[in-house]
# Entry
Amino acid sequence: MIDQAIDRTEKAGLSQLVTFRLGNALDMPFKADTFDVVWGQDAWCYITDKDRLINEDHRVLKPEGIIAFTDWIQTGNMTDKEWEELNSFMAFPYMETLDGYEQILKKTGFKLLEKEGLSKDFAKHCSARDNM
# Structure
């Protein structure tokens, strides 16, 4: 993925503005209070220790920094067959719930400004894609 990111950045003519560092999200190679924003996009579902992840995000954020993310979340109980179908292409160790993420964020010291569940709309789009 980092090779693709570098390639896309070069093609967009933005190489002089962006630096990529490969690292572990649970042990980031950055000093505390480094960033104004931590952004995650549909990737935290692959991390088993979400408490540690969010604690690490909190560590690298400057005071008053913003954490923002999208992720696959669990919205209800799933049958064994549904888990098998989902994990046959995604391989999630587990998915957190929207309320579960809120609890972890608050416990870590974040102030929640906004949360939005898009599961119903997302499910419609997934079904439409499957039907195609």
